[in-house]
Amino acid sequence: MQPFVAEVIGTALLILFGNGVVANVVLARTKGHGGGWLLITAGWGMGVFIGAFCAAAVSGAHLNPAVTVAMLIAGKMDAVSATSYILAQFIGACLGATLVYLHYHAHFESTEDGDAILSCFCTAPAIRRLRQAFVCEFIGTFALLLPIFLMASPSIQIESLEQAGIDGPVLGLGALGLLPVALLVVAIGMSLGGTTGYAINPARDLGPRLIHCFLPIRGKRDSDWGYAWVPVLGPLAGGAAAALLYRFLLAA
User: Fold this and answer.
1) Whose CA is closest to 137, among 35, 225, 45, 239?
2) How many H helices and E strands in the chain?
3) What confidence category does residue 161 fall into, taking pLDDT thresholds of 50, 70 and 90?
4) pLDDT (0 to 100) of residue 114
5) Residues 152-159, mean pLDDT to the nearest whole number
6) What's residue 155's pLDDT?
7) Taking a C-beta distance cutoff of 8 angstroms, is the pair 234, 137 a contact?
8) Domain interval for residue 220
9) Lower CB density within 10 Å: C or N end of the chain?
10) DSSP assignment of 175-238
11) Element containing residue 239 per DSSP (H, E)
12) Residue 156 is inside which H or E element, if any?
């Protein structure tokens, strides 16, 4: 499997589980209706974990243009690969949003609240102050990327064998090594997500917003394009700031 395909699949699964839990909570007549914010944050955390462990071995599981841009700034990948990753992430996000719509089709048809329908695809601020929302997305994404840069490797090499001139085995946690990132996303949702819905990922917001715009959903509202720039530029700026700080810390 190629990195491009891995990013498409991983991002699609991220959106399927992430937007899927939102649909389960807010759409009419679902079993999870009214499940609340904690269910949504837990579902998004699990979505990150599932998408990441499916793509990590091949692409590193960025699943987020803000992560890819940060890795580019940090010198961990080249521009051609970064462009390919970002394209794959947007394709995967659109695919995942479409799958959520197909899965919950009857419930979308039964929901009369246009804001609830839109929230199953993309984010919106609780208080509509766009500059403040930009700051929130910046901080949320900075709080995602800096810990990822600073996180210790989940694999170790037995040093005693290496010192004896023998290649010691490398011990790792496999997919469980991605659990800290999932828990980090849960923490961001619980602590910082109440202002904007914590997009912290341009593909996660813009791709599904496009799908909402084009799908023939009964009773839907407009796709709120006046806000759409915030969950794109805020995360990109926050990720870039985290990468610059990381480079400064390495050089210090």
Assistant:
1) 239
2) 11, 2
3) very low
4) 98
5) 56
6) 56
7) yes
8) 3-251
9) C
10) GGGGHHHHHHHHHHHHHHTTTT-----HHHHHHHHHHHHHS--TT-----TTTTTHHHHHHHHH
11) helix 230-251
12) strand 156-157
Distances (CA, A) of 164 to 160, 168, 169: 6, 9, 13
Exposure of 101 in the CB half-sphere (CA atoms within 13 A): 23
- What was the pLDDT predicted at 150? 92
Q: Which tops the pLDDT comparison, 132 or 151? A: 132
Distance of alpha carbon 19 from alpha carbon 108, whole angstroms: 13
| Domain count along the chain | 1
Q: How far is CA 228 from CA 85, 133, 221, in A?
A: 21, 11, 14
Q: Say if CB 64 and CB 89 are below 8 A apart.
A: yes
Contact at 8 Å (CB) between 217 and 73?
no
| Residue 78 phi, psi dihedral angles, 5° rounding | -100, 170
Mean local confidence (pLDDT), 111-134: 98
CATH number of the structural domain spanning residue 57: 1.20.1080.10
Rounded Cα distance between 113 and 190, Å, is: 25
Residue 26: CB atoms within 10 Å: 22
Write out the two tokens for 171. 């011990």
Rounded Cα–Cα distance for residues 23 and 145 (Å): 27
Residue 103 near residue 27, CB atoms below 8 Å: no
**Per mean pLDDT, which range of 128-142, 143-157, 222-236 is the poorest?**
143-157
Q: Convert the pLDDT of each residue in 28-65 to its tens digit.
A: 999 999 999 999 999 999 999 999 999 999 999 999 99
Tell me which residue of 67, 15, 20 sits closest to 39, measured CA to CA. 20
89 and 11 in contact (C-beta within 8 Å)? yes
